[in-house]
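Item description
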Amino acid sequence: MDLQLKGKSAIITGGSAGIGWSTAECFAQEGCNVGLCSRSEEKVQKAVSRLEGMGVKAFGRAVDVADGAALRSWVEDAAAALGGIDIVVANVSALGSGEGEEQWKRAVDVDLMHTVRLVDAAKPYLKDSDAGSIVIVSSVSARRPFGAQPYGTLKSALNHYGKGLAVELAREGIRANVVSPGTIYIEDGFWGNIERNNPKMFEGSLKANPMGRMGTPEEVARSIVFLASPMSSFTTGTNLLVDGAITPGVQM
């Protein structure tokens, strides 16, 4: 299936590793130019080089997404380098857990406000696109609380924000959707760390999933890229669970 992404331009926060990198790679495989950022300049430049090797334009910079001015500057420079912006993927998370006001403040700045600022900065470019699309990476934790933690709370807020964007921007030709991953295995990520340090918890999480396994970053990326593409042109305001059926209940 041709996703009609060739020559389009997408920007992704947290695009040098994990789900973000898999999404960047998937866009490039479809002929889509890619702008990305992460906290590591070394990882960013390595990712840019790999994307350029796939025959697309690529732009990257090390950015702390909690810094609103730096985030806006990156968006504007990415648009200049790529010739515009058609797609925005808000992927970064502080992975906030635990108690304490500083944890909450960081989670608000990174998970919620980075997404709001990213969309605001990119909106003028999306309005100029004939395929403007926003995808917010949330989590199944938004629907299933595991204590009073920042992570799930802020992901719930992002689900609400994404639905509001879809309604607000529909008449301007801009779509907004949410993708909610479940337990996704990344060797140097959260579940890789749990596997090494808490094997009992890891095994329990495997058994809890009806599919008997965890997902991969590539499986999430394919869902993000399809939802972002013109081939999903009448889908907006949805929350797509990519979770192997681990989330209980019926989503209404």
Q: What stands out?
A: The first strand starts at residue 9 and ends at 13.
